[in-house]
Amino acid sequence: MLTIEQVFEFMERVLAEDRLAGNRAGLKNTQTAAGFLMAAANYAGDRESARRFRVLAAEAANKHEELGGDE
Length: 71
Known about the structure:
The protein is mainly α. It has a domain at 19-66. It is built from three helices and no strands. The chain has helices at 4-21, 24-44, 47-66. The protein is globular and about 35 Å long. The N and C termini lie far apart (39 Å).
């Protein structure tokens, strides 16, 4: 069974790969997914996971913006 820690590891890896590749669509997808999972963690009362997903979403959004946003 997939663990929350594996989800974090996967998202961190994909975020790093998309940063290096300049993949704006991938960064936007990671931002959206992290935001969705942050909401789920908040709903479940898991503040630490929600915080980690919020950080991932912010990192993806910041890098996406640096690369030109939705141009």
